[in-house]
From TrEMBL:
It is found in: Secreted. This is Pectin lyase-like protein. Residues 1-23 form the signal peptide. GO terms for molecular function: polygalacturonase activity; rhamnogalacturonan alpha-L-rhamnopyranosyl-(1->4)-alpha-D-galactopyranosyluronide lyase activity. Belongs to the glycosyl hydrolase 28 family. InterPro entries: Glyco_hydro_28, PbH1, Pectin_lyas_fold, Pectin_lyase_fold/virulence. It comes from Lentinula aciculospora. The keyword Transferase does not apply. One of its GO terms (cellular component) is extracellular region. Pfam families: Glyco_hydro_28. GO terms for biological process: cell wall organization; pectin catabolic process. The keyword Repeat applies. Keywords: Cell wall biogenesis/degradation, Disulfide bond, Glycoprotein, Glycosidase, Hydrolase, Lyase, Repeat, Secreted, Signal. The lineage of its organism: Eukaryota, Fungi, Dikarya, Basidiomycota, Agaricomycotina.
């Protein structure tokens, strides 16, 4: 079953009258088994509507021509859904989707895999009920609790206007090229393993988003070549970071990253590049500009010893990083700028301009060279 909605718009251009017809196909989950009763599992209905209605009717590369539609109402998403080889359609969530508490629920609730030109939009919301999976803040009780949304090997996709609340684990992971997330909020408990946006691939773009959680705000993972984040607000997060790269990660490759116009408050960090002393690879040409911080521990921190490891033989090259126009406050027990790099491979060409951070300890530099701060030696 499907419904076709047409609207005709009439444009008057001088004396010329142009008629333009817009049509899109709407595949409502209500026609494929969903019930907006907050009890019936939405998962199978999403899959059926996609297979039986969306796939057969995608004929153009305009994503908004075919909608997998979740109308207004309350739905329970009790099982994971994977859209593999999805292309050229729009998951349009107008309703509110709730996750149950189910200790055996694991994986990722909504996965797009090998996908191309998918629009995921609101105005609806997904409520993860994450607090139930970590009662009293205990992250160890249900270590395989589910993540929320993942775009894996996906290009030219867009996520917008949907609000995500309190996922049991990470909220949005994007792996692929030319993807965009914008004009949306993620709001979770102030606790670890609640990452907002974890991005990797080439030329991804995140802008005009707000993240409140207790972990990564908008963060770059390897490999990345070309990433822009603009107009980002982070509350109670762990900051806008690069990494972390796990112990022994070889072949780290992150370059051409640009963050601008970021507001960070009550945070574990402002910006960090975090790795282990045995990582290998390259992080280069990184710009962080226009940061307003309040009560951010570690406002600017490059750490080759994130979460331990002391064997100082790493070959991760961190170079050509610019921190520009940082204003606001840190915390009295941590340095405003802390560079703690490998002896074997010092951080190079780390530059600072217009850094004005108060309520912090003195800066500290180990195995790093650059310009723009007194006591930082030139390269
Ligand atoms: C829907 O169910 C979930 C859990 O099963 C619950 O947390 C949520 O409050 C319910 N939503 C509404 C609107 O009743
Ligand atoms: C550095 O990255 C910026 C994007 O932030 C890009 O415009 C510029 O071309 C890069 N520079 C080099 C030398 O690759």
């Amino acid at each position: 079953m499907l419904s076709i909605i047409s609207t005709a718009t009439v444009l008057l251009l001088g004396l010329t009258q142009v008629q333009e017809a817009l049509a899109f196909i709407e595949c409502s989950v209500l026609n494929y088994g969903a019930v907006a009763d907050n009890k019936t599992d939405l998962g199978p209905a999403l899959t059926r509507a996609w297979e039986e209605c969306v796939i057969p009717q995608v004929t153009t590369t305009v994503a908004t021509d075919v909608l997998l539609y979740v109308p207004a109402g309350d739905y329970l998403l009790a099982s994971t859904v994977t859209f593999d080889h999805a292309a050229n359609w729009n998951l349009h969530i107008a309703g509110d989707i709730f996750l149950p508490f189910n200790p055996s629920l694991t994986g990722t609730m909504l996965t797009f895999e090998n996908c191309e030109n998918i629009l995921l939009n609101g105005p609806g919301a997904i409520y993860g009920n994450g607090y139930r999976y970590r009662p009293g803040g205990d992250l160890s009780l249900y270590p395989s609790r589910p993540r929320l949304i993942r775009f894996q090997n996906c290009n030219n996709c867009e996520i917008t206007a949907v609000t995500l609340y309190d996922a049991p684990m990470f909220h949005v992971t994007v792996i692929g090229n030319n993807n965009e997330a914008h004009d949306m909020s993620i709001i979770a408990s102030h606790i670890g393993e609640t990452d907002g946006f974890d991005m990797s691939g080439n030329n991804n773009y995140v802008h005009d988003v707000t993240v409140e959680n207790g972990d990564e705000c908008v963060t770059v993972k390897t490999p990345t070549n070309g990433f822009v984040a603009e107009r980002i607000t982070c509350r109670y997060t762990a900051g806008c970071n690069i990494g972390s790269f796990g112990s022994g990660t070889a072949g780290v490759d992150v370059q051409n990253v640009y963050y601008s116009d970021v507001t960070i408050s009550n945070s574990d960090a402002g910006v960090m590049i975090k790795s282990y002393p045995n990582c290998a690879g390259t992080v280069k040409n990184i710009t962080y500009t226009g940061f307003t911080l309040s009560a951010a521990a570690y406002p600017i921190y490059i750490s080759a010893f994130w979460e331990g490891g002391t064997t100082d033989t790493g070959t991760l090259e961190v170079s050509n990083v610019l921190f520009e126009n940082f204003q606001g406050t840190g915390t009295p027990t941590r340095p405003a700028v802390l560079l703690d790099c490998n002896k074997a491979t010092p951080c190079k060409d780390i530059s600072f301009s217009d850094i004005s951070l108060s309520n912090t300890k003195a800066n500290s530099f180990t195995n790093a060279c650059g310009s723009g701060l007194s006591d930082l030696s030139g390269c």
